[in-house]
């Protein structure tokens, strides 16, 4: 018997996603081979496309876990096609995260798949659905940093190395921010099933403003410094230096004045 969750079309990878992944592959090759006349443009396109791919995979992980948890409607909603245009809030999950990367170099968590939670039984399943998205960012960060902590960077072009370092930073910040136990973020979704019904009802009205509150707090200089000190401690543990991340961001923001130190390294 055919249903909304078993139709092949509901799970077929979207041409939109394949197009974004193709841009990531082609521009990644351009950065690696130094094919582009302007490496900054190639790095910008590569990192942006890779970031969007990771956002799509983040949402897919939520949906796929929900499907196995009991919500059989995610297929009909298009969540299993990896098409970012199918998300409930494409602006919040794609446009804003990309803008934040362009403006500030921080991985803004997305959150745009509507899970019908009443269809899912068991607190552990609810927690796992919420955790699946940021765990995808963790996996992406591990993949991006693997060449660094495995010492496998000999012969890797500096431009690609720097781009990978900056992309890893975005994944680490997205994972950490998303795992914060703040209403509206996935971290709160992990612990929410274990909280009392009364507490959840009291907190529910504040969920739409949770992410805004986090970024407002990050504007406090002391908090901002402590946050990024923690981020770079993680990056250091993964073998990625601040200098590599800074040069990656410098290349990414090709329209701004370039750091002489990074330019000198690339010109060698």
TrEMBL record:
Instruction: Enumerate the cofactors the protein uses.
Output: Zn(2+)
The UniProt entry, under InterPro entries, shows: Metallopeptidase_M50B, Rip2-like
Q: What are the record keywords, sorted?
A: Cell membrane, Hydrolase, Membrane, Metal-binding, Metalloprotease, Protease, Transmembrane, Transmembrane helix, Zinc
Q: Which compartments is it annotated to reside in?
A: Cell membrane
TM spans (from-to): 12-32, 41-61, 90-115, 127-150, 162-182, 203-220
The record's Gene Ontology cellular component field reads:
plasma membrane
What's an example GO BP annotation here? proteolysis
According to Swiss-Prot or TrEMBL, what is its membrane topology? Multi-pass membrane protein
Q: Which domain of life is it from?
A: Bacteria
One GO MF term: metal ion binding
Q: Which family does it belong to?
A: Belongs to the peptidase M50B family.
Name used for this protein in its record: Zn-dependent protease (Includes SpoIVFB)
Organism this protein belongs to: Streptomyces wuyuanensis
